[in-house]
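The methods section describes the discrete structure representation at length, but only in general terms. What matters is that the chain and its backbone geometry are given together, residue for residue. For illustration, here is how one protein appears when written out as sequence plus structure tokens:
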Amino acid sequence: MPKKRNTSVWIAVGLAALATGWVASGMVGDDPVQPEAQRVAVDVDTAETAFAVRTRVSESQLHRKTLLVRGRTEAERMVDIRTETEGQIVELPVQEGALVEKDEVLAQIDPRERPASLQEAKALLEQKRLELQAARTLRSKGFRAETQLAAAQAEYDAAQAAVRRMEIEIRMLTVEAPFGGFFEDRYVELGDYVEPGDTIGQIIDLDPIIVVAPISEHDIGDLEVGVDAEARLANGRDVVGVVRFIGANADPQTRTFRAEIEVANPDRLISAGMTAEVAVPLETVTAHYISPAILTLSDDGEIGVMVVDEDSRARFAEIEIVEDEKDGIWISGLPSKATLIVVGQEFVSDGQKVRSVEEDEVAGNEELGT
């Protein structure tokens, strides 16, 4: 037993000596190395990794803003035709809805005794004319007083006025169209008795036709009289006219201003009361035309686009939408020439280093963001 214990002790002592020698060899060898020297020198690349984005160079253009509003057509003129004297309707030569010309007869009232009264008035006028002539001759010879001549003159003037009244009365028996248009809504029939002021029908002038558009108080200051405007009618027909009137007083309920666009309608195929989509030209501005797909939002919720500056860094640029179109939008707020990020704008932040890849340089297998 004592022999085995000694053997174990010597083995332990030997192992300890070997360990001590191995440690000491690293400290006191022929080529000592300090701990600091043992660290490997690393060349750390502190440069930013540029994120690849697809870009497009956009240049501003002069663009005329167009306001799209819903309007309606109105007749150039629309009046009720009323009688000016009394009597029975004896003729209605025009059918309801017919197209009539200016001064065309719409209705005829029975004259009854009026022609005879006119003849009587004319006879009396002739008598008073002869009496006045005689009074003047006698006055020139001193056989009549001045007052007698004045009385004869007054009687003649009264007889002349009576003739004029009867002529007007007979002329009012014939109801004529004041202008050309459609004879609408006839309210009388043959045999009806009318009095002064009764309505016999309505006449509508559709040439030109007027397209009325409500303009908001925000846009009214940009609209001008005399500019061309377009309208698409409910039946799909496109027409072009001229802005002829801009209201100065807003509708108290809608706060919009009335604008009138005059459209030639010689064939009178455009009716009054039709719905119209109106494109009204406004001011000319400098803007960029872009796809709405490249729009983004800032951290503050502002709408804008990402651009690349001269230092190849992404920058957020706040913009204002000038006008929407079918395939794109017009925006303002950018310089005249700007490099827009069109792919990858959602993956870069303001100030981040980027590598621009022009759209026309992108190959089919190009991957951005690497």
About this structure: The mean pLDDT is 85. Helices lie at 2-28, 35-38, 114-140, 146-171.
